[in-house]
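Moderator note: this is an archived Q&A kept for reference. The question asked for a predicted structure of one protein chain; the sequence and the answer are reproduced below.
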Amino acid sequence: MECILTAALTGILFALFAGQPLNILGSTGPMLVLEMIIFKFCHDQGWEFLPLRAWVGLWSALFLLIIVAFDLSALVKYITRFTEESFACLIAIIFIVEAFKKLFAITDKHPYNIHPEIPLDYTCSCYHSNFTMPDPNNATLMNITSQIGYSVFDMTKGMSTALNQNKTDSNVTDYSTFLTKKECESKGGMMMGTGCDTIVYHDNVFFLSIILFLFTFGIAWTLKMSKTSRFFPTFVRQYLSDFAVLISILCMVLLDLYIGVPTPKLEVPKKFAPSNDKRGWFINPFHPNNPWWTILVAAGPAIVAVILIFMDQQITAVIVNRKENKLRKGNGYHLDMMVVTVCIVICSLFGLPWYVAATVSALAHIMSLRKESESAAPGEKPTFLGVREQRVTALLVGILSGLSVFMTPILTIIPMPVLYGVFLYMGVAALKGMQLTDRILILLMPTKYQPDHIFLRHVKTTRVHLFTLIQILCLAVLWAIKTTKSISIVFPVMVLGTCFVRKAIEKVFTHDELKWLDDIMPDDSKKKKEDEEELKEDDDGDEETESLLGDEKRRLNEMKAIYGQGDKFGGTKTPFAQDRVNITEEVNKTGIWLQVRRDSMPVIRDPDQNNGGLHNRLGNIKKKGEKLQKNKPTCPNLTKLGHNQYSGILFKKCF
């Protein structure tokens, strides 16, 4: 109930007052680990957990207010793509791994038999505690039943049938018609028999859970990708893609109801009350069991909590605000942190979990609000236009989260494996579109099959692989620290440490390489200045070579001026170096289209000379171009091109 109330409260407040409402607040794994450490510490010291946690939250709110007041959120400029994608990839992997862990944890209550060929003994009965089992050679089970009332426990069905035939016996308890093993013991009974310790297997429960898990993910992913398929009209594919998760959940719930196997279901509180009946909603920070100096002790964990809250919130905000999403409105880092601070104060005083920006949920929110072009060239993917920036969806998420309390009859029929499949989908969907994921896939591809990524055009493949391996190493360290409970409290500090790792690799990679593989960090002017000096030296070496074509360059400029003035100087107006066909960006990047553009390059006509003169003049340019090709590799090989291409290419590529 506390999680439902927190989701509603923080969701509504953040949607109404945040600077970037595209973020979605939620409970994160690192925050849960921190609260578990605080709980264990309080248990060892004999202190009350919730009052101390309230002080930790109040101290954290104070520190966060200082961060907001002194504009310290501006430190997000040091969070580059390297840190963003390392953190986001870690959270996505956590979603995927936890989904499989939860799925296989079903076997704890519903184990499956890996040796079905071995017969099992389930002979087990519920007797009165003062009953002595007779010799089976002297009395059969039915004779015992006729003499003393007891319940025979049927382990295969998980229930027992009352066989109380002798109702006049004062020592006989009138058991109910159906008794479980726990109910038998609670009524003073005793389980006796050779098969009481035999494990009850529920193979159908576990294997059906696997089917529901995989089908939920498969249907959701297939429908999400159907937007670019060839089937159905565009508006049908759009709706299927937008409601992919909901459709997959509905299909699997109906399948589970039809089969009727008792798979584990979602547990929802039936009344609006704290999960612990011994406490109320408001938490008194001044508890008599806690010494007064625990108020000061709480400042220590609060510092760790502040680092974690700041990193969780701001890294997610940076990911949402990245330029690839083409957002038009402001960022609002400071305002977002202020709203989160208010939410933490409220949650601390009411014993509610702390909610911060959840990376995977925010990315799923961004993906659901993507805008794409309605039409494109045949065979081309739709062009990404941006994100619908609004507050309605986040507000509705908060409101519906609160109203879920009244939808208990509906929520209790949702199988847990279906929700695990949704978690798997969210984790995999969050990985899609990351540059880190693309670079990891490139590690496994031959060069000729690598996609045409922009960074591969400007950075050598070996350097890309080196950058990827460094990032994978940082990701592995974060995972090891997060999964090791004894040192997991330093996880937020290590996330912060990735910023220093990113700064250190500037000694390995050049400014130009980092510009394409990552974002440029501030205070990088020294490195940039050195690269500019190297570039200037290269340009000085080319000045002598470029002077060889000074006359031709001036002549071409004059001809271009004649083209620009049109008929004023008697020139024939010819389209100059422009695409004849309206094409998309993807087609424009292909090698075939580049060749088409070269072949269709127009010739600038000079009215003062005939075609023969133009031919002779271009022949001179060809000779000069051969010299230029030797000294300036960036200039195209003019000796292999037709005469009708010289003027345009020389002007565009060589000058």
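Archived answer notes: The chain has three domains: 2-108+264-433, 123-192, 541-654.
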